[in-house]
Amino acid sequence: MDPYAILTCRTQEKKSSVASGDGSCPEWNETFLFTVSGGVTELKIKLFDKDTFTEDDLVGEATIPLEPVFAEESVPPMSYNVVKDEQYCGEIRVGLKFTQQRSRGFCADEENLGGWRQSSMD
Question: pTM of the entire structure?
C-alpha cells in the first residue's frame, strides 16, 4: 500500500507526499497551510492508495471540525474516524494549529490554518 492524502478546506486543496513502503501505518509528518475566512467549518482529508497502472483507490475520508482549533488555537494530534461508503475504515491522527493574521491595506482580515503535524493513519 502506497497511501497519500488530499486535504480540502473549502476550495483549497493540498496533496501529501506518497508514503511508500510504510504499509498500513504510514506517517507523513507534513505541514500544510490554508488561508481561511468566515464560514469555513471543516477540513476534509481523503486517503488514497497510489496505483501504478490503474486509477488510485479511495481508501476513505475523514472530516475534521475546525471550531475547536479556532477556539483553542491549537489541537494536539488526535484520532479522527476514516469512513468509506458510511463504513468505518480506521483512523487518522492529525494535529492542527490556527494563527490569525491581520492583513494590511484595504483587504478584509484573513486567517490562516496550518496543520497536519505528527499525522499517521492507524
Answer: 0.75
